[in-house]
Amino acid sequence: MSARWAATCIAAVVSATPVAARGQGARLRGRVFDSVAAMPLVGARVELVNAADRARIVFSTVSDSLGRYTVDGLAQGHYIAGFLHPMLDSLGLALAQRQLDVTADGEVRLDLAVPAPERIEFALCGRSADTTTTGAILGYVLNAHTLAPTDSAVVIAQWDEITFGHSGVSRQLFTRRASSDADGWFSLCGLPTAASVVLRASSGADTTGGIEIDVPKTHIARRNLYLDHRVGVDSAARDTAASAGTTQPVITGWVRTEDGVPVPGARVSIFGSRVLAVTNDEGAFQLVGIPGGTQTLTSRAIGFLPDERAVDLTDRRIPVIVGLTAIRRFLDTVHVRATRVSVTSAVGFDDRRKLGSGRFFTAREIERLHAREVTDILRHAPTLELLTDNSHNVSIRMRGDREPCTPAIFLDGKQLMNWQLSDLNGIVQPDQIAGLEIYTASMTPAEFRGKQGCGTVVVWTRASQRPAPRG
């Protein structure tokens, strides 16, 4: 018996409690509960069939906003009870059948529930699963155009783990793989609950983008993946149609502040694509000619934290509303009463500067440069190259023995993932910097090494109070 079918055997937990008789047939009352999300299950279809004639549905009803349901006039007899809900489909669980005996008129209590996450994980992943620190991701791989299931698609989850030991700091990449079945369903076990994983799916030449997903403390995450696959259309024909503008995926939406105010001039793109849209005065945008299926949408605007979110680009073309968080709310919550020396000493800047393994800028040196933005400081680092495009956007490259690459950027000890140099210019002013460190790939300390294996730019502001991590 497969792990998935083993899970279907526990798709509902039923408790039936008869109460005092009333004489007008039994009243069936109960609740449907989602144990995975720890909340009532809304819109569950509860069905009862006669045990002697299972082809005939005797009663059916739908749970309300509190997961409650009621059925009146239930005659005495033997029944099979269960419930249906799209959430069960996403978990790969089928309708469980449980017997219900009504032996007297009156009220009968019948509670139904999705099984506990630990039971689902055990059924899918077996006894080897470490239920304290690991979980699972379940879902379906679907065609982005027809929404039909994709058989034998490869689903991959990857994540990094950093280990501190006697020999130093090491970084290891972990991978889990699974294949979708004939219904498009997949399950990935042994995923960490304390870190984000990058999830993607592929089938032949078709692939989704990589999206970040967190496995919650309840150990079960649900996520469907959509592939931009057109049945009966080869890749050459698809490229021809795309160049003609007839079948290109399109996404529209709006970029707003947390208070709902439009953000004009925001830059919106699909991660990994060169197509870029800029929002108008109403905060609206449209991206055409981008990869379809499940992708990561990135949004950036000066004065706001960059936003990254998974989107499903299907033929339904549902608009997206992006809410950006102001930098001021993110950074100005900390007020520090410290001298420049104490700040740089607390974060380890002074100790690393004595070693001389990188290029260091103190607050006094930055003041002498009369820099107007962070870019002006970086121009004085011989290992860096700053490039300006036709739109006056500045990008940063690290020179070295290998091919030039984009260095990682750390702000107050935290890596800024997928940020651009313009983002750093927008949130940090030179007079706010307590210290700045620049390292080549070979000289980068272990705590500041990025995933790309390039060099690193580390910026410490006067709001830096926490010490830098040490190996």
Give a verbal description of the structure:
The strands form eight sheets. Strands 1, 2, 3, 6 and 9 form a five-stranded mixed β-sheet that branches. Strands 11, 12, 14, 15 and 16 form a five-stranded antiparallel β-sheet that branches. This protein is mainly β and 471 residues long. It contains ten helices and 32 strands. β2 (26-34) and β3 (39-40) form a beta hairpin. It is elongated and about 90 Å long. The model is unreliable at 5-22, 240-246 and 465-471 (pLDDT under 50). It has four domains: 3-115, Immunoglobulins (Immunoglobulin-like, Sandwich); 127-227, Immunoglobulins (Immunoglobulin-like, Sandwich), CATH 2.60.40.10; 248-327, Carboxypeptidase-like, regulatory domain (Immunoglobulin-like, Sandwich); 334-461, Ferric Hydroxamate Uptake Protein, Chain A, domain 1 (Beta Complex).
Brief write-up:
With 471 residues, the protein is mainly beta. The chain contains ten helices and 32 strands. Strands 1, 2, 3, 6 and 9 form a five-stranded mixed sheet that branches.
Helix tally equals 10
Mean pLDDT: 79
Shape: elongated
Number of discrete domains: 4
Low-confidence stretches: 5-22, 240-246, 465-471
CATH superfamily of the largest domain: TonB-dependent receptor, plug domain
At CATH's second level, what is the architecture of the largest domain? Beta Complex
Q: Quick one: CATH class of the largest domain?
A: Mainly Beta
- Rg to the nearest angstrom? 28 Å
> What is the CA-CA span between the terminal residues?
47 Å
Query: Would you report the number of β strands?
Result: 32
The profile of the biggest β sheet is:
5 strands, mixed
CATH topological fold name of the largest domain: Ferric Hydroxamate Uptake Protein, Chain A, domain 1
- Report the helical percentage: 10-25%
